[in-house]
Design goal:
58% helix; 189 residues; globular
Length: 189
């Protein structure tokens, strides 16, 4: 049938598609959705839960437009390949804007690779100029990336390694207040 599914259902379908593009992303979207939800609740729910869920589902949808030879490349990326990968945040954000009513989620997706110290992409936003949902998504996305196998590392690191790495980058890559709250969320896992 040509019936259009509800937005979040369609977003979930798209995120599952992304997860299926690589053996290293199995159930990644579900994990990101659950952990961002828990972090949002741990800090008093400053972000609308539906907007955060949409951002969590769509944050890497733009990766499906990255050529497979770059998406699954082992080893370091050229500057041009890195630029193409960085475009995924703009593509995902634009998708959400096209859906309509998901402007906050679009901003979170756009901001999830910004760094707290201003050295991230795509805009070099810094500190509280980065949407709080984007800051949460950045931590959770990094945690999930560290704790799963990847094409450049055939083993997954431990929860302790992931937490250590995130804490080591507190105040440079990540919002230090959110890192403290995330530590509490992981302790409950």
């Amino acid at each position: 049938s040509l019936e259009v599914p509800p937005d979040l259902e369609l977003m979930r379908t798209l995120s599952i598609h992304i997860d299926n593009l690589s053996i290293y992303r199995k159930d990644r979207s579900d994990q990101v959705v659950q952990m961002t939800k828990q972090l949002n609740e741990a800090i008093g729910t400053p972000v609308d839960p539906l907007q955060l869920q949409a951002a969590s589902l769509m944050h890497d949808v733009g990766m499906s437009f990255i050529p497979h030879n770059i998406f699954n490349k082992e080893g370091s990326l050229s500057k041009e390949e890195l630029r193409k990968i960085q475009e995924h945040v703009v593509i995902g954000s634009q998708f959400l804007l096209r859906f309509g009513g998901w402007d906050e989620a679009a901003r979170m997706v756009l901001d999830h690779h910004e760094r707290y110290d201003g050295t991230g992409y795509p805009n070099g936003s810094k500190g509280n100029d980065i949407h709080i949902g984007g800051r949460m998504l950045s931590i959770v996305d990094t945690f999930c990336s560290i704790t799963t196998e990847r094409s450049d590392r055939t083993f997954k690191k431990s929860l302790l390694s992931a937490i250590s790495e995130i804490n080591a980058n507190s105040d440079s890559q990540f919002d230090p207040n959110l890192v403290q709250s995330f530590n509490e969320v992981v302790r409950k896992i």
